[in-house]
Every structure is written in structure tokens, then in C-alpha cells.
Amino acid sequence: MAVAVGLWLGSSGFFRRAFEPYIHALASMPKIIFLPIIFLVFGLGIESKIAKSAMSTFFPVTISTIAGFLQIDQTLINVGRSFHLDRAKMIRLIYLPAMLRPLSVGLQLGVAMAIIGVLSAEIAYASVGLGARLIRYSDNFNVSSTYAVMIIIFAVTATVNHLFMRLQKPFLRHERSRQGEAAALTLTAARTPA
């Protein structure tokens, strides 16, 4: 959803100017202040953790998608329009491949923010989960268990980050090869006599 909102705002100058200040303002606010509302709506179960992680992820992904869209070379957009591509094909063939790097950075940041969001929700209100255990053990001065939970959190975070980097590597490799082909074509065109 965040990618779709970012594409919509990136492609519409009017709506971007209207909504971007509010998105940046909400993104800079600590999401923990929304926890009471989230718990009132979704309860104290897994649904509230999902909602909190979705809220934490939404803003960095949306902002990086907007920034990635604004960095697309206008020539690529003009080529797509000259071939009369519809909006779905423009997104699939022009926009997403051209904004792959900022989008992947935003998604990686979003995953980290989701983990932080879930842990903060557990620390604040939950009675189960790693965040709740961390607070319970540290309040009882159970040092070895506190360190054990911290190591588990670190291992989970490092594993998720590693898996995400493995998933994005083929796409970034494809982007580098496309950039190399474009550079070679530009060089060939420059050397060709008029």
C-alpha cells in the first residue's frame, strides 16, 4: 500500500504538494503515541502488533517511493508515453525498474522500523513477546535472561536483514546490468559519426 501511495503522490504534482508535508510531519512523530488508539481498535493481540508494524513501515516506504519516482529520468517517462503505455505498464516497465534502488532502501528501512514498532508495542503494553520478556527480566534484575532476549532480538533482526538483502541482490544486479547497457548504447551513439 505504501508503494502505491508513493507512486500516486510521486506521479501527481498537485497531490504531492498537498499531502507530502503531512506525510513528513506524521513520519517524524514517534509512533508510540498512537499505541493507545491502536490497542483500543485492535485489542492487545497479534492484530495490534501487525497494525503498529504497518504504521511504522508505511512512512519510510512511502517517502522513499516518492523520492525514487522524482529521480526517474524524464526521458524514460517520455519514451513510455510515446509508446502509449497505459498506467499499469508504465508502473511495471518504466517506474519500478527505474526506482529500484531507492525503493529497496525504503523497504529495508521499513522492515527495521516494523521490528522496532512491534518491540515498542510489546514493551509498552503486551504481556507476551520478546519486548515484554525483556522488560520483565530487566525489572526483576535477571541479567542472564535479559542478555539472552537481547541476543535473540539481535539474531532475529540480523536474519531478517540478511534475508532481505539476499532477496534484493538479483534485482540490484539486474539494475546494474541495465545501467551498463544504457551507458554502452550512449557511448556507441556518441562515437557514431553523424
Q: Would you write up a description of this structure?
A:
This protein is mostly helical and 194 residues long. The chain has helices spanning 2-11, 13-28, 35-42, 46-70, 74-82, 87-98, 100-124, 130-139, 143-191. Residues 182-187 have low confidence and may be disordered. It contains 9 helices and no strands. The protein has one domain (2-191): MetI-like (MetI-like fold, Orthogonal Bundle). It is a multi-pass membrane protein.
What are its keywords?
mainly alpha; single chain; cell membrane; MetI-like fold; 194 residues; elongated; 0% strand; transmembrane
Quick rundown:
By secondary structure, this protein is mainly α.
Tell me the name of the CATH homologous superfamily: MetI-like
Number of domains: 1
* Shape summary: elongated
Overall mean pLDDT score? 81
Specify the CATH class.
Mainly Alpha
User: What's the β-strand tally?
Assistant: 0
Work out the strand percent: under 5%
Distance between the termini: 48 Å
Major beta sheet summary:
none
Transmembrane segments: 22-46, 58-79, 100-125, 145-164
Protein name: ABC transporter permease subunit
Main location: membrane
GO cellular component, one term: plasma membrane
